[in-house]
Amino acid sequence: MREVTPKKIREMKGKEKITMVTAYDYPSALLADKAGIDIVFVGDSLGMVVYGDNNTLNVTMEQMVFHTRAVARAVKRALVLADMPFSSYEVSVEEGVKNAVRLIQAGADAVKIEGGADHEKLVRKLVRMGIPVMGHTGLTPQRYLRLGGYRITGETEEEIEEILRDAKALERAGAFAVVLEFVLADVAKLVTEEVSIPTIGIGAGPYVDGQVLVWHDLLGIYESSPPFAKRYAELGGIILEALSQYNREVKAGEFPSSEHYWEYQDKEDFERKAKNALRRLDL
Ligand code: KIV
């Protein structure tokens, strides 16, 4: 069992801020774990940042299992959390259970679902079975068609009520934490005060119990990122420069240079061995 457990995450509320970052492959997960991040999260955002789609609706269970397996192999300390993709849990509780089990068997310690009140029964069932669940409310990207795009939430009384209802339902059903995405900071603060489980914000301000960012946004891989994401590095530019230099050097015959290859010192020895090899092959 890994050091960071859902129980430990719950106990961090009010004592220590929780850190969470997405990772979709082995090397990224190794680094996130080494950096001391509490939760390494295989998000369905991979549909956009890894596979290049413009939403998360096409992500499949197969993709989630595949990426969860790679991440789980790398992480020794942090909690490994895997996202349930669109249509993997909405149709029935049975379907949701079956798919959550697949992610746990791929190496996840817990699963995340979008929504709260609508899935109280599923969350309760998973928790009873021993599968820890994190919820997700505010902007729920799997419902972006209904929401009318990616926009801030909590502006109307109805939205405040819906976010609170989701968080309370998740708490009641036994979820160990809830993500608040793109929620006005005052609303996120209210929810954080109203529930006993940790709130993890993304674009939800500072009055929450923890923060989550998407790998590619945090590291500045793409030219643009969501307005709420802080870019801690500009790796996109660094990678582009390295690839361009490699391209230039190969074309100019500068790479590989002598320190990157090996050749016979005794050319006569090579000539003899090559001649014999060619003769044996009738060439
Ligand atoms: O899939 C994802 O990356 C997420 C985060 C935005 C929380 O759900």
Overview of this structure, please?
This protein is α/β, with parallel strands linked by helices and 283 residues long. It has one domain (6-237): TIM Barrel (Alpha-Beta Barrel). It is built from twelve helices and eight strands. Strands 1-2-3-4-5-6-7-8 form an eight-stranded parallel β-barrel, surrounded by six helices. α2 packs across α4 (61-74) and α8 (157-173) packs parallel to α9 (185-194). The model has no long low-confidence stretch (mean pLDDT 97). 3-methyl-2-oxobutanoic acid is lined by residues 22, 43-45, 83, 179, 181, 202, 212, 214. 3-methyl-2-oxobutanoic acid binds next to β6.
Count structural domains. 1
End-to-end C-alpha gap: 59 Å
Count of separate DSSP helical elements = 12
State the total count of DSSP E strands: 8
Fraction in beta strands: 5-15%
Order of strands side by side in the largest beta sheet? 1-2-3-4-5-6-7-8
- What is the fourth-level CATH superfamily? Phosphoenolpyruvate-binding domains
User: Which architecture name does CATH use?
Assistant: Alpha-Beta Barrel
Mean pLDDT: 97
The global form is: elongated
* Percentage of residues in helical conformation: 40-55%
Cofactors and ligands present? 3-methyl-2-oxobutanoic acid
Catalytic activity: (6R)-5,10-methylene-5,6,7,8-tetrahydrofolate + 3-methyl-2-oxobutanoate + H2O = 2-dehydropantoate + (6S)-5,6,7,8-tetrahydrofolate
Keywords: Coenzyme A biosynthesis, Cytoplasm, Magnesium, Metal-binding, Methyltransferase, Transferase
Function: Catalyzes the reversible reaction in which hydroxymethyl group from 5,10-methylenetetrahydrofolate is transferred onto alpha-ketoisovalerate to form ketopantoate.
Subcellular location: Cytoplasm
